[in-house]
Design brief:
The chain is α+β, with helices and mostly antiparallel strands. Helices cover 23% and strands 30% of the residues.
Length: 87
């Protein structure tokens, strides 16, 4: 029994004398995340034909409006909204 106590004491003294190397910056997700000004800008057309009463979702700004947008599926009523923003 004394043998196990001695081994445990030696192991604990080694851990206390040489704690694990821990650097909080290794785990800081924000350090590698681009700032909002560096985030890529995403643009898309909002609106579904044939009745396009489109608006941009929160965080996106309307740049223009067009009946067809970027495809051949055009609106019979209203227009698609071209929305741009940062994800």
């Amino acid at each position: 029994m004394l043998f196990y106590i001695v081994i445990l004491a030696i192991a604990l003294s080694m851990v206390i004398a040489n704690p694990l190397d821990f650097d909080a910056s290794d785990y800081d997700d924000m350090a590698e995340r681009p700032s909002l000004s560096e985030a890529p800008i995403t643009c898309f057309y909002a609106g579904s034909p044939p009745y396009c009463e489109a608006s941009c979702p929160p965080g996106f700004n309307e740049q223009s409006r067009d009946a067809c947008g970027d495809d051949d599926d055009c609106c019979s009523v209203g227009e698609k909204a071209y929305c741009c923003g940062q994800m």
